Amino acid sequence: MPTATARTLDHPVRAEIRLEAVLHALSDPVRLQVVRFLAGLADGEEAACSALDLAVTKSTSTHHYRVLREAGLIRQVYRGTAKMSVVRREDLDALFPGLLDTVLTADAAQRRRLS
Amino acid sequence: MPTATARTLDHPVRAEIRLEAVLHALSDPVRLQVVRFLAGLADGEEAACSALDLAVTKSTSTHHYRVLREAGLIRQVYRGTAKMSVVRREDLDALFPGLLDTVLTADAAQRRRLS
């Protein structure tokens, strides 16, 4: 049976979040898709990784979620056997005002342009 | 003697610039330093790579400028033996309104926070 420690995922605290890591995390189309999806949920609403159908393998998906979590973009917690994710909007907006929204707007504009 | 072709550097046209590549280019502290420097110049002013003293080797510096150029963040042209660089602000602002300024503001805030 996993211990409480094994079931807790590492996250940077707000002061440890770095712009370079956030930009790197957002520089991949699959990770951008995850953030777009999570940012579109109601405030504070969590989603399981399985809620979004990514065109990648399970292990690649897990990798992308981990990059997002370790960069400070999302928070992940276990609820029973499900790993639930939520965007750290409050932390991001406090550190980098407007950045998340500007990137999501740019992403939406690009998808319109390329479709 | 280099031909005209050899002296011309490849750049994506505006429509080829991709958000993911721009974010990746900006996700490195040295490249962020270059963009910060170039964005601080007067409108249209070019700078030689040697104008900025980066804490990296010449070949690493050349690599970083190339990543920025291929992502569409900067334009580079030869003037005699010097390679001159300028931020593609007009292209970036047209494609991703506010993105460059938001990133530079976030970068400035982070540097204040960490200093």
UniProtKB/TrEMBL annotation, chains A, B:
Signal peptide: none annotated. Keywords: DNA-binding, Transcription, Transcription regulation. InterPro entries: ArsR-like_HTH, HTH_ArsR_DNA-bd_dom, HTH_MetalResp_TranReg, WH-like_DNA-bd_sf, WH_DNA-bd_sf. Pfam families: HTH_20 (PF12840). Transmembrane segments: none annotated. Residues 11-107 form the HTH arsR-type domain. SUPFAM superfamilies: Winged helix' DNA-binding domain. One of its GO terms (molecular function) is DNA binding. The keyword Metal-binding does not apply. The keyword Methyltransferase does not apply. It comes from the Bacteria. This is ArsR family transcriptional regulator. It comes from Actinoallomurus bryophytorum.
